[in-house]
Fold this sequence. Notes:
With 364 residues, this protein is of the alpha/beta class. 35% of the residues lie in helices and 30% in strands. It has helices at 48-57, 92-106, 151-163, 174-182, 219-230, 234-245, 254-277, 294-304, 321-334, 355-363; strands spanning 3-7, 12-19, 25-27, 31-33, 65-69, 75-89, 111-123, 126-129, 136-150, 167-172, 188-194, 199-205, 208-215, 283-288, 309-312. The strands form 3 sheets. Strands 1, 2, 3, 4, 5 and 10 form a 6-stranded mixed sheet that branches. Strands 13-12-11-14-15 form a 5-stranded mixed sheet, with helices on both faces. A 4-stranded antiparallel sheet has the order 6-9-7-8. The two termini are 19 Å apart.
Amino acid sequence: MPVLFHIGETHIAALPLWEGKGGGTNTGPFISLDQGATDRHGNLTQDAAKLFATLAEDLPEKLDEAIIILPARQVRCRCLSVEVPVNGGVGQHHAEAALTALKSETDHPGEVVLYRQPSGYTLDGVSGIDDPVGRFGRLLSAEAVVMTVSMRFLMSIEAVLTEAGLSLRDVITPHAALPASHLQRGEGAALIHIGHGETTISISRHAHIIGAGSIPLGVRHVVGDVMKMCDQTSGEARHLVHRSLSASWETSDLVTKVVQARVEEIVEDIAHVIKSSNHGESRVILSGALASSLLVREKLQADLGSLFDVEVVGSNHTMSDQECLLLGAARVLQGSYGVHEPASFVSAAPDAHHPVVSWLKARF
């Protein structure tokens, strides 16, 4: 059985997966290192192989296969729509033609498709249709959420894992792990996770992702603003940011105004992703380092409006944000939440003899 890894700028964590006695998968002990394995752009650092190897050595049993939760900024999220003329009754062949058109729109050389699921259909302007077969109309549109990662980044992961004595078994997106960590199968919500250097957004309904995105902004950018504008050290800036985040928008001191400016930018980008998805879910779940911030909650509620209900799922003393994502990913891989389909290999890889290419060909 493999071990799940979550890699970030400030931490790298692991969660072993064990085969249960009666079948299925169990999780082992959570292990974390207070050192980052990616840089500010989501690329692996020079010390990444050493960190993977250190975590693997600390496991209670030797595991040599790795499943990676990808950095959000390395995942390209798109919401696509294609149209199919009907002019009468919608048959199964119309729906299949729409899905075939979506597939051709998403297969690109050098990219690996991680998620490609229809999020709904629109018939003559009427949206939110789950199954259009049997209806009558003139023009059928199919919408889908598509997430891809570059082959180059997968190859860099494979090279680092090989150096650490591990093999790449699978990859999963944080957008898939996030709803699985906070929702039950029948629930729906827009989930927002504000991390150290990036923000992940995943909109889920009935264990299917119907909207996704990421923003290259997080806690690091708020702290950096205070360091620059208020001439503070990193430690001092973190303390000031923590204090300001509990203040209200009426507070007028310099530090709070600097924090407010960056919070406004982050929240406005979040609200844009949620509103543009047109998903129809009124529940919004906020998690991550800024989840308990009064500034963030007030601004997000104001930008989204009264139709949305913002709730906070903050980290507690027994479970870190990384552990939540790892356990969510484990639920997806176990099949207890959502659909985890194999990534589809797209030809024209940089090197046809590279080990990760052989891995993709053998699996997919």
